[in-house]
Each structure stands twice: as C-alpha cells, then as structure tokens.
Amino acid sequence: MLTSEDRQYLLELEEAIRKKDLSAMIAWAVFWTVEHPEELLSPRQADRVVEYYGLGVQNGDALSCLNLGALYYTGVIVEQDFSKAVGLYQMAARLAEEEEEDSIAALALSNLGYCYYYGRDIPVDYAKAYHCFLYSALKFHDVTSYYKAGDMYRYGNYVGKDEDIAFLFYQKAEEALDEENDPEHIAADVYKRLGECRLYGIGTQKSPFLARAYLHRSEQEYKQKVLRNDPFAPGLLVKVQSLLNEVENEIYKRKDR
Questions:
Q1: How far is residue 195 from each of residues 50, 149, 248, measured CA to CA in Å?
Q2: DSSP code of 21?
Q3: I need a labelling partner for 115 at 20 to 30 A (CA). Which of 142, 144, 224, 254 fits?
Q4: Contacts for 71 with CB less than 8 Å, ≥ 6 apart
Q5: Is 20 helix (H, G, I), strand (E, B) or coil?
C-alpha cells in the first residue's frame, strides 16, 4: 500500500516528467517495477514503464537496460523474450562497468549468468555462466553470483564437482548478505542452500538443527518474495517446506534413538 510520502514523490516525478526529464521517467518506472512490484499496474501504466525504460536504453542508461531486461526475462508487463533479456543484460553490464556503477554491473552479470546457465533462448553454456558468476562474485561480492558459483561446484557443471568449495561459496554468499538492504529477498536462496548443506552433509558436517534454522529463515524470505509477485517463489517455497518436513523427521528419529 502506498504511503502519503509515496504519493507525494509520484506527484513530484509526474511534474518532472511533464518537463521531459528522463531521470524522472526512469525513477517513475523503477518505483513501480523495483520498489513496489506488488502494486498492480493499469495497461497505461505498464506501457509507460516500457516506454520510459526504452528511452533510458536509447540514451545509454545502464539501470534501464538492466530493469527492462529483467521484465523480458520474467515476462512481467511485457511478453517473455529471453533473447531481448540477454541483449539488454549484456548492454547493462558493459555500460555499468564503463560508468563504475558496480551494483548494476554485478546484477547484470549475475542475470546474464542465469541465461547461460539455464539456456534461456540460447544454448546452455556453462563456461560463460561460470565466468559471469565468478567475475561478479570476486570483483563485486555479489551474493547471487557467490551462490550460483557454488552451485556449479556442487553439481560439477563446467568445473569439477567439489562440495567443499560449493559450501565455501555459500558461506561467502551469507557473509555478503545485507539483510537490511535486501528488497529482492535474495537471502531466501542463500539460506535454502545452507540448509540443504547442513541437512545432507554437503561440504560440511550434517546438523539437522542448523538445517532447520536456515530453512525456517529461507521459508520466511520466500513468503516475502511471493508477496512481491516473484514468479519463481511459490515453487521454491513449496520445496523449502518439503525440506523442513524432512528435517523434522530427521530430528524426530534422533530423539527416538
């Protein structure tokens, strides 16, 4: 629900937009798609979002490239188009590095890594995915890139399978988390992986009690992602809840011994 401060901010943006202020147009689009994605947009508002981000792309704005790419990747507001998403992520990464906009560069590289990792309208390319994730993790300390690099070691994609290194990358992701500034609730994905490691003994000792603690935190974060209309969150929430049931069964067995 929008606050009075939000409404005042929107009025100020609308005034600047009437004066053809591109930065205000981009800020308006960011307000609806990043800061308040839970709000349902009218068709006219959705068209304005795409129009304003498009103008930003034409003018070499890295954030517009990143956010418009994300809309095409998820199919939110626009028809899903992974090819357009890849092109926009590549542009965002290049522009952001040139302008030393580290947070944008990190997210663009991470998102691009996802496209290569899962083969979103392009052939699966684990080598390119690995280099995107590793570069973004080591240079920008990007949380998502840390845990995705960990996934590659966990499953042996491109690199040799090494669960110890996977667990280390998951720990680095946890260290890089800033839960006070995590609007996307990335913590959900980090805690899920750490919970799995503690449940199954992946790269570390088994500990169902630590697993339960991590998975409970992951569950709460995924619930927040569901409220933000994250298209992938409902399925992942169900998975975490299934893992929690598995943990509880394991703890019950231990008490029975």
A1: 38, 17, 13
A2: -
A3: 224
A4: 33, 49, 50, 53, 77, 78
A5: coil
One DSSP character per residue, 207-222 reads: -HHHHHHHHHHHHHHH
The candidate with the shortest Cα–Cα distance to 107, out of 221, 175, 184, is 184
Cβ-contact 69, 85 below 8 angstroms? yes
pTM of the model: 0.86
Q: What is the rounded CA–CA span in Å between residue 252 and residue 234?
A: 27
Nearest to 198 by CA among 179, 171, 225: 171
CA atoms within 13 A on the CB side of 81: 10
- Write 83-87 long-range contacts (CB < 8 A, 24+): 83/121, 83/122, 85/111, 85/115, 85/120, 86/112, 86/115, 86/120, 86/121, 86/122
Question: What is the CA angle 112-117-119, rounded to 5?
Answer: 90
What three-state secondary structure class fits 228? coil
Q: Which residues contact 33 (CB under 8 A, 6 or more apart)?
A: 49, 67, 70, 71, 76, 77
- Calculate the alpha carbon distances from 140 to 97, 105, 107, 111, 221 in Å: 11, 8, 9, 14, 23
Element holding 90 (H helix, E strand): helix 82-98
